[in-house]
Amino acid sequence: MIAPNMATMLAFVGTDARVPADELQASLGWAVERTFNRLSLDACESTNDSVVALATGAGPEVDANALRAGLLEVCAGLATKIARDAEGATKLVRVSVTGARDEEHAVALGRAVAASDLWRAAVHGGDPNWGRVLAAVGSADRNLDLDAVSVSVGGEILFDRGEPVGVLAAAAAAMRDGEFRVELVLGQGHGSAEVLTADLSEEYVTLNAEVTT
Fold first, then answer.
1. pLDDT tens digits for 98-129?
2. Domain 10-84, what fold?
């Protein structure tokens, strides 16, 4: 969970746009699905996360696409701040999946990597262990064709269509930054998604070992 609190996350988004309530609700749901719902720090759902959008109607009417784009930008910014400020987090990791069968498939594989304790521990130690990434993806897709998959860490391709490649030291150097990207290319279709996560640190373990005491 993001924090051991009965109101773990309450997000409020405001706009002066004149927009019907049903349209605002639909647009907010679309943006939340692609931002807050793609944030996985430990795969443990909290008790009552909520995102609320309020519209005063005091401003002009807005195009539906512009409304969605604005909500997406705001929600993405807030979700990123949650990942940066997570319990014990020292590094923000963006897990990017492309070439999946569809968007739902891409999200599932991204979440599998984001929730992997083995990979998150490797992230904390600055170890570009691409095998941990593939293991997580393989656990979510038993039919994964490794001959079509590539894995990059911090911009360095470390596994390409069945073969280890690249320079581990270069990837390790990128992992020393406070934020880096893991990219998976699957070669199965046109689905893509990005999932946010953070490293698994000693502080995270300590905080969650002492929640009630």
1. 999 999 999 999 999 999 999 999 999 999 99
2. arginine biosynthesis bifunctional protein fold (3.30.2330)
For the chain, residues with pLDDT lower than 70 are 1-8
- Would you state the pLDDT for residue 85? 87
Number of H-type helices and E-type strands within the chain: 7, 8
CA 151 to each of CA 60, 121, 137, 139, 155: distance values in angstroms, whole numbers, following the listed order: 46, 18, 11, 16, 9
| Cα–Cα distance list, 65 to 51, 60, 62, 147, 199 (Å) | 20, 15, 8, 39, 35
Take residue 39 and report the two structure tokens written for it. 């944030």
Residue 4 pLDDT: 35
pLDDT, residue 155, reads: 95
**Torsion sign (Cα): 71, 93, 83, 3:** positive
Parse the chain into domains and list their residue ranges. 10-84, 92-206
d(CA 91, CA 89): 6
Cβ count within 10 A of residue 101 = 15
Rounded Cα gap, residues 3 and 34, in angstroms:
21
What is the rounded CA–CA span in Å between residue 36 and residue 196? 9
Q: Which fold has domain 92-206?
A: Ubiquitin-like (UB roll) (3.10.20)
Do β-strands 156-160 and 150-153 pair in parallel, antiparallel, or remain unpaired? antiparallel
* Single-letter residue type at 76: A
- List active site positions: 8
